[in-house]
Design a protein that fits this description.
By secondary structure, the protein is an alpha+beta fold. The chain contains two helices and six strands, in the order βαβββββα.
């Protein structure tokens, strides 16, 4: 009936995800966030003073604990990429992490390591990479975001195909 919540639970946050394309589905944002934290509710559109949506979503989350992480938590990257769509992630207490390697202590302009843009491994460049491209939604090799079975569009298409097959069978 009631859910107890500690007032001092620092893992509970509200994340603002600002996408640069208004056509990105909120379900895909939730799937991406779920890789890094526990999504605790439905994303809500962020409106300006005139009631106009600015392509941002407000999402209640709970960060995963990580004893080696900043403040004892595993933090969410500040950049979101879903296929060709990019966005920014903001939340209270978010540490400044390097956008290229994800480590604390430096920003991308001061990085000294070589990080592959394809597989995100440290030690080789994109041109030297022998790995297959990874989906930036589910991080599996062998497909990209537009073909990902976890993307909302593909789940919807799959659902209608199954429904059509069901209707044809009966």
């Amino acid at each position: 009936m009631f859910e107890w919540q500690k007032l001092t639970d620092l893992s509970n946050r509200t994340v603002i995800v600002r996408m640069f394309n208004e056509m990105v589905m909120k379900e895909d944002i939730v799937t991406w966030l779920s890789k890094y934290c526990l999504v605790k509710g439905e994303p809500q559109k962020v409106l300006d003073d005139d009631g106009i949506w600015n392509c941002a979503w407000r999402v209640p989350i709970s960060l995963h604990e990580d004893k080696n992480g900043y403040g004892g938590f595993k933090h969410i990257p500040s950049l979101i990429g879903l296929g060709e769509n990019r966005g920014l992630v903001f939340y209270q207490g978010q540490p400044k992490l390097c956008r290229r390697c994800g480590e604390l202590g430096h920003l991308v302009d001061a990085i000294t390591k070589v990080v592959c843009g394809k597989c995100k491994e440290i030690g080789h460049a994109y041109t030297e990479c022998t790995s297959m491209r990874k989906c930036n939604l589910c991080e599996c090799e062998g497909h990209v975001f537009k073909d990902c079975p976890l993307s909302f569009a593909n789940r919807t298409k799959l659902g209608t195909k199954i429904q059509k097959q069901f209707e044809e069978a009966f």
